[in-house]
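Lecture 7 notes: from sequence to structure.

We start with a single chain of 191 residues. Read the sequence below before looking at the structure.
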Amino acid sequence: PTTESGGPVDATRFEARLAEYTSSIDAAPARGMLPEVLSGIRRASERSGKTIIVGNGGSSAVASHVSTDLAKTSGLRVLNLNDPGLITCFGNDYGYERWVAEALQRHLDPDDIAILISSSGQSENMIEAARTARAIGATVITLTGFDAKNPLRALGDLNLWVDAADYNVVEITHLAWLLAVVDVLAESATA
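Now the structure, written as tokens:
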């Protein structure tokens, strides 16, 4: 096979990259925490709470995908805060660092669960959101990567960390883990 420019395609590079994704998805101990994520979502639902999922950049796409599938397949109350109007309005009025926290103050209740996704765990808006969610009394689940001592990871009740310093590896791992939770919840809803 060749690329559009006519140069050869090295299939071993794809195999290596896919192996990196697989290795990250299978990594422990965060993978072992998935039943706790599922239990937290169920507990929130049993208390008439909801699950709010939010992320930045590629993580916002993960949040959108997971929240849509979770609501559709499980029938649970799920809210994704990645609406452009909300982001630009609250970002303009409160500053980008505070937009998620301000949105959570309006939508998050103590019986809810907030799932905050930041590949680096350094995003100030997610850190502020975690502090706000904790102050409200909601359960906070974080999904991060890169540095194990990132500030967002320190603020969650449950923290799923990916031992990788590559955005695509971290984001695909977060997506795979959360979609596994969605699938197991959906299977139990139809059983």
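The beta strands are 51-55, 78-80, 113-117, 139-144, 158-161. Keep this in mind for problem set 3.
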